[in-house]
Amino acid sequence: MKKKSFLKYLMLMCVGVYTLWIYSCNPKKGDNESADKDSTESLTSQTSVANVSFPHAKDSSCFAPEEWFTGPVPEPDPSAFPTDPSNCDFHIISWQYFLWLTEKVNGKLRFETMFSDKSITPETKDDTNQELDIVEQALSKGMLVDLSGRAVYSNIIINDIYRDWIIDNHLYNADSLANFDPKANFPVGSLSLKTTWKIIQPGDDTTNLYTTRAKIQLLTMVDGQPRIPENPKTDSVDVALIGLHIAVVVEGHPEFIWATFEFDNNAPDFKTHQTMDSPVSDKDWLLYTSKTLAKNTNVNNAQILKFKDESKQILTPVTQVARQYANGGGSDKNQYNIVQLNENIKGQLKGTEHSIWSNYFEVGAIWFNTEIGQLAPDWSPNVDSAMVTGSLRLSNSTIETFTQKVISLNECFSCHNTMTFFAEDGQILAGKNLSTSHILLKRFQGGGQVKRGK
Amino acid sequence: MSQTSLRIHPAIGMARVGNSTEYYLGPETMAARPQEGSDTTGGLPIKPNTESTTITSADLRDAQGRLKRQAARFKIFQYPNSPSSLSYPSSPGEEVKIGSVVDGKKVSNIIWTAHLANKKANCWEIDETANKGIELYKNGNTPPLRNLPFGNNAADINRLQKLIIDAGPRAINSANGSSPIKFDNHTIASYFDTSSKEIKAAPNYPIQFPASNGSESDGSTPINYLGELLTDSSGRLLVLGGHGLACGFNNEGSFDGNQPLCADVDNDNWLDDTSDGPVTAVLIFEDGSKLPIPGSAWVVVTDPAYAPQTLNVVTLWDDVYNTWLEKFDLQPEVYSNKSYNHDYQPDFNEDVFPVLNAAHMQRWTTNLPDQAVNAHKSMMNFTKEPPKMNIMSFIRKVDGSQNSKGSPLMPLSLGDANQSFLTLSHQQYFFMEQWTKGKCVGATPLKLGAGEQLDKTVLVNCLGGRFSPGIDMTFIVRDPNLYNSRWHDPNIGPFRINTEPLDYAKATKDKPFLGVGYIPLRPDPVQPGDICKFMAIPWHTDYNSCATHTPNPNPGGKITNENVYGGEVNTTLYWSWPAQRPVAVYTFKDLSVNEGNLKNTIQRFSVRGEGTAATSPMDNPDCPPSKDFDTVAMNVGRYQNRKNILTGWIKIGTVIQGTAIDDYPDSYDKDYYLEVQSEFDKDYSNLVIQWPNNVDDKVEPPEN
């Protein structure tokens, strides 16, 4: 139904009398899909958007539909994603997912009701335990240590489509996974999330943050360094959501759209032409002390991390965080769309019952221009990046704090790619499209953090 | 008509400097290669006066703690019934020792002649900034000369006299036992005279040791010795090199202990005591007759081997072999008519496994992260059957299209000749591709005779790939002009240097004997000192520097203060020569403290003496400030003042397999390669941080 109505909408737009005007105003080929689409997309108006399932949007005015803010945000329909999307469309759907996932359902955020990454076996398929069980940063043994000395915690969450596809195809079994069609893709609608949470300290101003009570796994010394041990003790603490990765397969994009959101006051952006010896910001941020020099931000503590007080779980050194690439970089149009859409949505959220989310923003999103290339086995963006578009250097400053600076690791596909995977135990998983999923790779190697891209 | 031919092997032998008067013999097994019936892999040097007994950790230094030298051992092989036109590989041959019979006559003695010289100071700059290698010699061009105050023509007599160390030729008769013949100021030059068929003294030979009057000062030491010749009980030749000295001199050519060292590769006003030159031999039979071996070999004296069992991914052999395959029609079944033969079946063990094995070995001299170590370890499980994964997706293409792409493409070390990252040599890549196509299954291994195997083994144990300028030999090995093209002559054979015939009878005291000699891409034959001359001067500073660097050229442009965080420039640090210039090592001492548990054992920088704590800028007095982008993290793992490496190199430890370490506990893993015999009692450098390392990394003090 939704696909149909989208086509109808497109046809309507194609007869627009303003086509030539739009060409002249917005002649640049999109950095995502075909150039021609802009001429039709440009006729989109917010009134017509309200009549279609997917709010197909134009790049020159990247706005969210008003209907999102007058009631519950419509559930995103990944199958109705346009076949000729604009750059803005990817950011729109990213925001739609963010708002939908953060909507309260029976007293919990929707994503808090979803499945844990351990739910991918028949025995554990109902696992919705969202204990915070990750402290290690992406591709590192380092941890993001907040200014109070506590580790920032994460967990990984998936939806039923993601889970069921794995279970239905027995991909929790290493042999089944190894023998699976290398070109098979996750189905449309597959969704995985990674959250990051700061432990709230007495006196912390949490006015603008979403907070909740969560169970965390406690650290102790493992192999000479503070780590979560195999059978950890847990504690219940108040936490504030500071980061959210959303990876979703929409129609035509089996590579997943990788979008990421953060709390507004997490960390400053590097300036254009930021130098190592100059401060990133003159003000204090949640994860940054005013006037900290750029070279002292995002410092990987992997080999120097220590307990200052194990009983209080206080670590040293703390991490000063900054965002190296505002909006995750990419073309001017991409960044303009992100800025415009963030402003538009945050403005519309204010005063609504969802206003807490006006304190969060989309850092950026990254996906493929499928006219240039499709997801295929044995692919890495570091070898062929031609088809990658959107926020080309996208990191979440609370999840990929330390890898932002590494040229071979500074975007989502750097690690979520389809190259052969070498497990810790020496087993080899030949390159597959599904290898973008670290949940599967982790399962393949029998647990343990997946570290790719190096 | 077939006849017995005689050739000296290895074609190119490698001696290595050391500050000890003692020595061990160069390895005659290939680095990291599994050895049948032994837990110890190849690449270990050999104890003196033995055929093949490999050294242990106690043999690396003498009783005074001085680093022993590596002798290059030369052997003569006879090839009965040689065809008139040699193909490669040739027949197995057999070694000719004292007592061997050649064409019915018993060998009673062997006379060897070698000639050592060092022409580094009269060479052209390597131009470490341009990093273009042999390209700079194209179209009749040459880069700027080193030491221009001595004249702007390499053939100027002033330059030839003051900038070339020429010890001249020395001959040794194996009958004289182990009495060394020295390449020094006092020993009269001598050679085998083909007219008189005797060793002839050449008192008029103009032995040159410039700037040799003075006393050691601040690491600068007068040089008056390049090495010596010995023979063993079988009549083989042993060539020993110098003691690793560097010598500063002023613009008049006199010794100067205060010369600054302001560059890593091209330092004017400096000499060192590495060298190279031809090796020839004459068989003396019981009946008194003498048979000169028609061809010659070559000896190169170079840096110490601090990780002799760690295989380079691209070895010197790979570069030399590539030149011979592609320019000399060495094996038409592999390469002919300008293309590789896609029906060729490479031998997995010989042609493919070394690349995989080398990847596996890099962990012992680099700070690779755990996941890379795991991935490399799984390379060891491959067999001749094609891999069930797309391994070529990880191997940088050799067509130039991926020269600027770093991780995940391998090899992950830096390239040369205007190439940001290293690629395998063409035939290595071809052999890997053939393997993935199943061509290794059913392949017939190529059988090399012991002599030709030695030619290969010696070069396998040397650095290839990144000739900027390198450690043992440089980009000249890619120039066909370097070699004797008449290799089909069974008395010459492949891989031989295009040696200039030298008539020592014409030597006069008042005139330098050696001239400009070989120039890359020109047909001029090769004189003594022409091979080492393209290396860094002194070698120490290049060794010191070549730990990690950003790519050059940087694919995103030159790094500046303003673009360092912009995302276009590559700000990651990569290794230069990790297998041969260890960067980060595990020490046996640290492992012992952890009772053999490697997981809890930290890595340390190999170069970690006093003065190695990284600074920015580095601490080089009397040198103009560098205008290049520089950070503390870019300078880790090396002496901050280049002068310190002149004395610090003798303290660097050597990485060898646990099984070769004396008192290595049985309970420890036999496949650990650990640093031993370091004289850096305290670590003054910095904490080794796992790769990827970046120019803005915060540098931490080491654990002690």
From TrEMBL, chain A:
PROSITE patterns, per the entry: PROKAR_LIPOPROTEIN
Keywords, sorted A to Z: Membrane, Transmembrane, Transmembrane helix
Highest classification ranks of the organism: Bacteria, Pseudomonadati, Bacteroidota, Cytophagia, Cytophagales
Name of this chain's protein: Lipoprotein
Stretches that traverse the bilayer: 7-24
From TrEMBL, chain B:
Pfam entry (one): LodA_N
Residue ranges of the region described as Disordered: 32-53
Residues annotated as domain L-lysine epsilon oxidase C-terminal: 413-552
UniProt-recorded Gene Ontology molecular function terms: L-lysine 6-oxidase activity
Descriptive protein name: LodA/GoxA family CTQ-dependent oxidase
InterPro entries the record matches: LodA, LodA_C, LodA_N
Entry's Gene Ontology BP terms: killing of cells of another organism; negative regulation of single-species biofilm formation
Domain L-Lysine epsilon oxidase N-terminal span(s) in chain numbering: 9-301
